[in-house]
Amino acid sequence: TLPFRKMKRICIIGDCPLKESIRKQYLSLGVESIAEYASGLVDISEIKGVEEFVILTSPSGDSMVNADIEALALLKALADTAPHAPVTRPVVHLLLQSPASLRAIQMMDLPAGVEDKLEVYPFTMEDIWAKNVLVQLPGIADGDYRALDREGIGKESRCYVHIVLSGFNAQAESIAIYTALTAHYPNYRPKDKFPLRTRITIIEEGLQSKRDAFISRYQSLFDNSFYRTVDVKKHSIDFHRPMYAGKRSDFVDVEWEFVYSSINNPEVRRKIHNWVNDNNQLLTFFVCGDNDGQNISDLLSLPKVIIEREIPIIVQQSGSEPSKALCDSANYNNIRTFGMKDYGYDVTLPLVKLAKLLAYAYDFSYNNQHFPTKLPVDKAEKIWKDEKSFKMRCSCICNVMTIAAKMRSLGHDAADAGVFYALTQSEIESLSETEHNRWSVERLVQGARPCTDEELADIRTDIKTLKQVYKNKDIHFDLRAYDELEEDGTGRNVKEYDYALTAIIPLMVKTFYEKYGHGE
User: Fold this and answer.
1) Cα–Cα distance between 441 and 462 in angstroms, integer?
2) What is the tens place of the pLDDT at every residue in 10-53?
3) Cα 108 to chain center, whole Å?
4) Computed from CA positions of residues 276, 277, 278, 280, in that sequence, does the dihedral angle turn out positive or negative?
5) C-beta of residue 376 within 8 angstroms of C-beta of residue 356
6) At the N or C end, where does the chain have fewer CB atoms within 10 A?
7) Helix 377-386 and helix 350-368: axis angle, to 10°?
């Protein structure tokens, strides 16, 4: 756990299996008092002097959305009674039950007035578990899960990340989306005949309706992506190309594969053998089902070559037994579990601390047209406080989730995370393109789309004004290939912003560890 400023009072509202873990974390941080309330028994007027709130919804079957609506109403009530223009906004950790509720906030932002009074971090357990599995802080040598890119993917590497999801529930969807948000590497060259993209394969019997709903939820992403659908029984393959394929350069470095079958199908198993034996594929298998016993059964039915080659297998489990015994076995040291209901949320928010430094660096570079040489934490806090949009804060968090992978791609490891080193211009340019690709997928996931040819022409007539007008409609002038980026309203090519976000990585990581320690 990262060192943390000492706080006086915490308020926990509601109940769920995660509550005890959160309480223990705060006590270990030296909190003086923790007030606890049942969700329906809160008198907002009595809550005074609280520095952080935790709002916990409870799993409740068909009424998950109703639980989230009640939590958001409580959040609005807290904001309405909070002091006007507080010096420090209380942090609110907001557990939601429905992934749809979280996606709505990510796309449309929090209710009006909330961000002026409160610093809110909504999450679902699926969201947190996906981050725990896929995201590493720079400087952490031995995490619970192997990185998707292993020791790193450099510019000249011919390897690519390939994750395989057996089963497609809400947790698997979260794993898929977070892979799309984070798995971006500098060896993707869109002008190559066969560009190396991160591949996400989803395998499930009767997947069709889930696939259709998934694509509809992320329509903008899939409109601009390569994906194929394989119906094993019908021996048919349907191949989808991006909407501007052949007209514009490719700019999405993630591809998808939907397989209508189970992992036990002989043809699927032959395909798995081919994947395992392809040395260019950095494979990771996920077994995601809602039943612990069935997940263990599916795990044990995977082709033995996966075990023999020690390909990482990550199995969803709500409890620790019998999965713990299996993972402790010497014969299965490539297996890890995730998804325990009472585990996984870090109240110190280390990614947010990194994101604050990034937000300051970006703001400084934008206004001064050169990189900062230091990152004062107090000024970073002010920039973060002034940003009232959760969507924009979320964008900074998405960026810093990829810092460890970017460092690995340049040959750096956990041992030098806290040491400042200057990136070369070549490294900056290489990772800046990777950053643009990452940003593009993030915007597509959030629902933005590229401009049509007519919209591009219209914006160019008055770029200072119209670029923002279209952006407010989730139509983004910069959603295109890196080589096609243009000047913005300031007369600067937008590549310069990617340069700034990349060049500052060593100083940002060094500042992070000087201020907060090494997370050990």
Assistant:
1) 26
2) 999 998 889 999 999 999 988 888 988 887 667 776 677 888 99
3) 17
4) positive
5) no
6) C
7) 90
